[in-house]
Amino acid sequence: MIVSSWNVRGLRGDGKLRMVKELRNKYKLDMVGLIETKMQVVTRFDVIRIWGNDGVGWEYVGSDGASGELLLIWNDLVFSMNNCYKGERWLCVKGVMLKRRFNCSFILVYIAHNRTEKNHVWEELSYIAGLCQTPCCFLGDFNEIVHEGERKGGTSLNRSAEEFKIWIQDMNLVDMPLSDHKFTWFRGCSYSRIDSALLSLEWLEEFLESRLRGGPRGLSDHCPIIMENRKLACGPRPFRSLDSWFTHEGFLRMVNEEWKGLGDKPFTDKLKALTIPLGRWHKDKFGEIDKKIVKFEEEIKRLDDMVSNGVYDGTMEARRKALVTCCERWYVRKELH
Question: Which residue range or ranges hold the Endonuclease/exonuclease/phosphatase domain (predicted)?
């Protein structure tokens, strides 16, 4: 099962929606947790727009004007929810991974900046973990570091970070190392690793090959984090399509002609054979859009890496904002093409 969390800093607008869809398709996500959606109410229509199809389950914590805005969406053929618990700063779904019949709980978190509020949330999460009585995965924006090197200029942990570290130890959780990113949050010349995935020992006993990596942050100042268990990545690849195909003039005509040309082959064989002309058509019609999006994301990451290594001047933030604006325009173009 492949799971991601991302502080998207607002989910309104076609650019942000396309950004999340790209993440889901690129990493073949089975579950995604979105933080700071800035949505007071979430409907099935909203979820389908975000996820791309109707085979989903979801739960959310709406905005109260000061905190929260959490949304957890999952493929209901992969995970089945049995129960749900909610707090102002966290969202817990308890259920079973269907393929392995593994009972577990996912807890999406968005922790406050205030130390007193943080300690209150640590107590709530301890209670919820005890209530669920299952292996747990805590993931999200913790607004706190665990090690000195996870924040710019960090040489020691403050009191709040020490208390967070003690809570992790008391809960017997493992802070998963991030394999390909040093930091997950950037703003100007500031940066830190405040987005994390914490796994219980029982979870790691079941999934010894769990790993955590980062994705392109695109239009947000946070990078998404992606946790995957390679043992579950097996079986045939599903047939996938893009929403933008169906709004492109000539797509249905091309499919109809190719389908007729395949004759009387069995349905599944025709679907498999259709992937070849579909791939050629997608590359011809959308290849430049994909290349431009990747180019902008790579340039944003290059600037982030420069900031991480201490290279910063007054022009870099302006360049990054310009790149984000261009990236958003191409996301929207791909959505509406």
Answer: 5-222
Going by C-beta distance under 8 Å and a sequence separation of 6 or more, which residues neighbour residue 174? Answer: 198, 199, 200, 201, 204
The token pair at 68 is 């929260």
Topology of domain 3-232 in CATH is Deoxyribonuclease I; Chain A (3.60.10)
DSSP string, 43-64: -HHHHHHHHSSS-EEEEEEEE-
The model's pLDDT over 66-105, given as tens digits with 9 standing for 90+, comes to 455 899 999 999 999 999 999 999 999 999 999 889 999 9
Q: How is residue 140 written in tokens?
A: 């999200």
The pTM for the full model equals 0.72
User: What kind and span of H or E run contains 124?
Assistant: helix 115-132
The full length of the chain comes to 337
The amino acid at residue 51 is W
Instruction: Tell me how far apart the alpha carbons of residues 21 and 335 are, in angstroms, rounded to a whole number.
Output: 10
Give residue limits of the domains in the chain. 3-232, 243-336
* Dist CA 301 CA 138 (whole Å): 26
Token pair listed for 321: 């904002």
Nearest to 109 by CA among 99, 97, 117: 117
Read off the pLDDT of residues 298-328 as tens digits, 9 standing for 90 and up: 888 888 887 777 776 656 676 677 777 777 7
